[in-house]
From TrEMBL:
It comes from Qipengyuania aurantiaca. The keyword rRNA processing does not apply. It is a multi-pass membrane protein. This is EI24 domain-containing protein. Its main location: membrane.
Amino acid sequence: MMSLPRALALSFSQLGDPAIVKVLVKSLAITLVIFTGLGFAAFHGLAWVFDWAGWDASGGLSALLTALVMVLAAWLLFRFIALFVLQFFAEDVVRAVEARHYPQEASAARSLGFRTEMANGIRSTSRALLVNLAALPFAIMLLVTGIGTAILFWAVNGFLLGRELQDMVWLRHRQDEGERAPLGGGNRFLLGGTVAGLMMVPFLNLLAPVLGAASATHMVHRGRAALA
């Protein structure tokens, strides 16, 4: 089994690969377009709510509430949107890593198709939103601790991301429904938690989804080899 630091190091070293650069540009562009559109809709939606409630949208309290809601929405939604978009380009990342490091496995990979990618993206994004919404009341209660809320969201998303990143690779190579998952729960959480942490760091959060997919490729293939 390849260690996560080694997998991350190999992933960072391949960021200059033209195939990876192409995915980064496409996924970032689409993510930012979707994110901007949602932000525009949220801003005007809040303005409508304030108008309906009879509040002055230009007032200090309304402006503060709008800013808080937008920041919270940005913090929560960016990772979901980025990973949803990456679902459609994950195969390109996986193939680029496999072509350089695992040519034999690359020849045995199968394409999932657009409809399957769409279904996987919707399912994983919906699951992430629902789990985060379920965790939200506990996160609010932990606000008094100062750091408890951030730790809770990190742990929840680390658990979710580990599974999603593994499946981006594994589903392209799984031989049958009963095949054992190549990564254990601890390694999945370590992978997902690291990527969730990177998504909290400005600028690195733009690279995190691709780094996660590339690192998952290394770990899944080494994990499958260890189980063989």
